Amino acid sequence: MLKAQSLDISYDQKKILDNFEINVEKGEIVSIIGPNGSGKSTALKAMSRLIPVQKEKVFLDGRDLQSLGTKSISQMMSVLFQSNEPPSDITVEELVKYGRIPHKKWYERTSDEDLSIVEWAIEKTGLTPLKDRLVASLSGGEAQRAWIAMSLAQRPKILMLDEPTTYLDIAHQLQLLELVHTVNRELGMTVVMVLHDLNQASIYSDKICVISKGIVVKYGTPEEVMTQEMIRNVYGVECEIDSHFQHGKPRINLLGISKVSAQ
Ligand code: ADP
Ligand code: MG
Q1: Which atom belonging to ligand 1 lies closest to the Cα atom of 163?
Q2: Per-residue model confidence as pLDDT tens digits over 168-196
Q3: Do β-strands 58-60 and 29-33 pair in parallel, antiparallel, or remain unpaired?
Q4: In percent, how much of the chain has pLDDT > 70?
Q5: Which of 31, 104, 245, 256 could form a disulfide with 108 if both were Cys (CB 3.0 to 4.6 A apart)?
Q6: CATH number of the domain where residue 79 is located
Q7: Structural domain boundaries enclosing 177
């Protein structure tokens, strides 16, 4: 579904992603984890063509990302980054309706189907009571949910989220991850997201990609990836791992900063 091979990205001669490889299968939830500044957002940007990539490095549904038009990309993929500035004076419902634009020709009006998808996205994100509010007047967490609703209304084949839980309290974090899980299972939406919480990544992902200093150090199932050695080497943190905590997914108990420094 989404594949990157030997992808290199540099800013001002500095290599940010070095030989980055990922192969996301259709219907999977893949989380990208790694320390601050390791290249996670850069990887999402490169895979959604928000920064230029060379030919034949990124493939979406088997087609070279470079050969696809912007509209075909936005029909297939929705990407949500950490800071989003809404156009001024727009309501939640109007923002969510923007999600339908890639599926329409410029002269087409909003159809009943569009409206029911918009309503579904608003309801799923718990925003029904706020749908007529201006996005600019929402709290950080509410605004985050409004952007997620817009992404869902786009009904992408692949949903990419950069730290989607950042502004959310713990209940809303879990609701969001449950929602991601639901759209993945019910609509078959493939998901690639950057997460910080190792336990959330473990519970909600089919595969985890660990990036450290621009290099993929591990890619596999949570069971394969979440090891004491990986967490010590990548984060410099000691932990215990309970390997069959929830649905057989490993649970990580962080113990403290490692005396052996991170590599
Ligand atoms: P992460 O999302 O893992 O925290 P990023 O992908 O945002 O990391 O950044 C990786 C590295 O690339 C960091 O060192 C960051 O400073 C650098 N970087 C990111 N964007 C730019 C840019 N536009 N120009 C120069 N350096 C950048
Ligand atoms: Mg980032």
Answers
A1: 2
A2: 899 989 999 999 999 999 999 999 999 99
A3: unpaired
A4: 98
A5: 104
A6: 3.40.50.300
A7: 2-257
In a domain, 140, yes or no: yes
| Cα(206) to centroid(ligand 1), Å | 26
Instruction: Say if CB 114 and CB 102 are below 8 A apart.
Output: no
| Number of structural domains found in the chain | 1
Q: Are strands 58-60 and 63-64 parallel, antiparallel or unpaired?
A: antiparallel
**Domain-located, residue 263:** no
Position 262 pLDDT exceeds 70: no
Distance, in Å, from the CA atom of 48 to the CA atom of 72, rounded to the nearest integer, reads 12
Please list all protein residues whose beta carbon sits less than 5 angstroms from ligand 2, which is an ion.
Answer: 40-41
Which atom of ligand 1 has the smallest separation from the CA of 42? 6
pTM value is: 0.93
Residue of minimum CA distance from atom 6 in ligand 1:
39
Query: Is there a domain that residue 262 lies in?
Result: no
